[in-house]
Structure formats: C-alpha cells, structure tokens
Design a protein that fits this description.
There is one protein chain. The chain is an alpha+beta fold. It folds into two domains: 226 residues, Alpha-Beta Complex (tt1808, chain A), CATH 3.90.1570; 44 residues, no CATH class. The chain is built from seven helices and 13 strands. The strands form three sheets. It has a seven-stranded mixed beta sheet. Strands 4-3-6 form a three-stranded mixed beta sheet, with no helix packed on it. A hairpin with a 4-residue loop joins β8 and β9. The chain is elongated, with a radius of gyration of 25 Å. The relative contact order is 0.14.
Length: 287
C-alpha cells in the first residue's frame, strides 16, 4: 500500500518554553530527562524484582489486547536486526524510587525505549535500573474509563515527568487519533497528513488507522498500523512471509512460461510441455 506523502508537521511550537505547573509531588530533577538526574536521591531504591508487576486489572477488551499485540509484533519484526531498543505493552513503568508511597508509576498500552544496552525479558520497566532511560514513544488505546485521563493528567505525566518525545492516543469508539511531540519541554500537537496519519520522529514512521481482519473475532475492525516514510504499511511477520511466498510463486510461474515458450519454439508437443512446466494447455496456447 503506497500513498502520496506530505511533509510531517506540527503546530507552530511555542516561542518560549513553558514551565510545567503540575508537579505531581515529583522532585524537580525529573524535568531534565536522562542528563540531569540527581543520582544521590537513589540511595537504596527498591529493586525491580520487589515491585509489583500486576494489578489484577485486565485490559478493557479483547480489541485492546489484539490492537496492542499487533503494534508490538509489527515493530519488533521491523526492527528485528536491531538490539538497541525495548518494546513493552500493558507493563508498569516505574520512574519514582518512592513509588510505594506516592504511587507514581504508569502502565502504557504500548511504549518504546531506545538506546537500550541489555536485551532480556522484563516484568516491568524500572527507570533507575535502566540507565535512567524513559519511554521515547507511548501509545495509549483509550476506553470509556480512560479517554479523558489519557489526554489530561496522564498526558501531563508523560510530558512533564517522563518527558516522552512522542505521545499518541487512539479512541476506538470515536476513531480519533491524537499525537504530540515534545518541543522545548512542552507537548505540541501533531498535525495529521491527508490520510489522517501522524508522524513519529522517534520511530521514523507514520501511525494511522486501518481496517484489519482479526481471526479471533471473525470480523474486520479498526486498528493502528505503522507506515514508512513512503506510505508503505509495515507488515506483520505472517504478512511478510505470505508476500514472499506470493512473489516466489510469481517468479516460478514466469520462469515456467519462459521455459514453455522455448519448448514451443523447438516444436515440442503442448501436452508434454504442460506436463513438464505444470502450465495448462490453454496457458501454453496463449504464449
């Protein structure tokens, strides 16, 4: 799938940085992502293995589960030759060593962290055990119970505390896709292209809404998919394998037709050519 692309754009950024007004009882050093953390405050923090990684609350619906896993599988396959990233979904992100008292942690539906040095499985993302890396991209799949929170207080946390570069929300009920880019420590709303897609600088990809057939549902639903800068939809592993198989079949068919054409030129019998190449007599007669 290829569509004409327009240059990614954002609403004109603020001329001067705006100082966040909400702090959520978080020390000021959190506003300087990755470079200005006061490591002295981390004396004796809780280990990630000591932190809860389940809250007993299931995802809002089967759609949320399928939509989340689709994004994870597609990007993981696209970046399969890279080892410097981590993709998580419906996983706690711990960014405050004192979270037990403050309950300062989030559980994004989908997030990506770049610059990761260690590749291993994780129950949760614990910032102070991950070189102070926080999510670069977050996508929240809204539900009736989270739709307002996703674009208000939760957005403020990703902007002011975690300083996530790209934040997106998608509401399956309304079909509304929103996105923001962190510029001068504040979020600036992304402007969609003609297809309604939003550009992620961190991923180098478009994010858009498409129809997708879910086998478990036996129906087509709206989901988010990634597109490259030329507008080509990134495939799942299964889709990529099916495309390769189709291309191989087409190449084999083309090769068989060329072989049959040479045999005809030599005066061979059509029935014999059909038996050798697998082409039907009618296909051979049309060559």
């Amino acid at each position: 799938m290829t569509v004409p692309m327009t240059k990614p754009s954002v609403i004109a950024p603020f001329a001067e940085p705006v100082v966040p007004t909400k702090t959520y009882d978080i020390p000021a050093f959190y506003y300087n992502k990755r470079t200005c953390y006061n490591n002295k405050i981390y004396t004796g923090p809780m280990r990630g293995t000591e932190l809860p990684y389940k809250d007993g609350v299931p995802l809002e619906s089967d759609w949320h589960l399928n939509a989340m896993m689709l994004l994870i599988h597609i990007l993981a396959y696209c970046w399969r030759h890279r080892t410097d990233f981590y993709i998580g979904g419906n996983m706690f992100v711990y960014f405050d060593p004192y979270q037990r008292r403050r309950r300062n942690f989030r559980g994004p539906d989908f997030f990506v962290v770049k610059g990761v040095k260690k590749q291993h499985s994780r129950d949760s993302w614990v910032v102070w055990e991950e070189d102070m890396l926080t999510p670069d991209v977050v996508i929240e799949l809204a539900s009736p119970s989270t739709a307002t929170f996703d674009v208000t207080d939760k957005k403020d946390i990703y902007e002011q505390i975690l300083q996530t570069s790209n934040y997106f929300t998608y509401n399956p009920k309304t079909g509304e896709l929103k996105g923001w880019e962190l510029i001068n420590i504040v979020y600036v709303a992304l402007v969609p292209n003609a297809q309604g897609w939003l550009w992620s600088d961190e991923l180098g990809l478009w994010i858009g809404v498409v129809d997708y057939y879910v086998e478990a549902f036996k129906q087509t639903v709206k989901v988010l998919r990634f597109f490259d800068s030329d507008g080509n939809m990134l495939p799942t592993r299964e889709e990529a394998e099916a495309q390769r198989a189709e291309q191989a079949e087409m190449m084999l068919e083309l090769k068989d037709k060329k072989t049959a054409h040479r045999m005809l030129a030599k005066g061979m019998n059509i029935a014999l050519i059909s038996e050798i190449t697998g082409l039907s007599p009618d296909e051979i007669a049309k060559l």
